[in-house]
Amino acid sequence: MINYDGRTFRAVHADPDQPASSAVYRQRGDLVWAEFGGGEVRRGSLTGLCGEDGTVEFAYTMVLADGAVISGRSVNTPEFLPDGRIQLNERWERYGEHAERGYSTIVEVVE
């Protein structure tokens, strides 16, 4: 199991100059959680479970800059980059009024 505790992840966009949300992950055993914000996200939170292979299944909520309130779930599959950082390949689904499905990439930020 990958230990995500204390690792910072940032959303990747096609335009690297576009502001992106970021989060510091916390982990105890298989429980993983974070609060996130930045870019178009005013505030968000996620909570989920980490599998033995490092895949994390999350439930999330967020409030966007335009006032939209979003909830959904995602499955994040880890990939190790050549420099040792973790990239999470995320398959997500939003519920309700903002129902949508898609894929995102989230990359570990090392300072």
List keywords for this structure.
111 residues; mainly beta; 8-stranded antiparallel barrel; globular
Give the helices and strands, then pairings:
Elements: E1 8-11, E2 22-24, E3 26-28, E4 31-38, E5 41-50, E6 56-64, E7 69-80, E8 86-94, E9 100-109
Antiparallel strand pairs: 1-2, 1-9, 2-4, 3-4, 4-5, 5-6, 6-7, 7-8, 8-9
Summarize the model shown.
The protein has 111 residues and is mostly beta strands.
Question: What can you tell me about this protein's structure?
Answer:
By secondary structure, this protein is mainly beta. The chain is built from no helices and 9 strands. The protein has strands spanning 8-11, 22-24, 26-28, 31-38, 41-50, 56-64, 69-80, 86-94, 100-109. An 8-stranded antiparallel β-barrel has the order 1-2-4-5-6-7-8-9. The protein is globular and about 35 Å long. The relative contact order is 0.20. The mean pLDDT is 93.
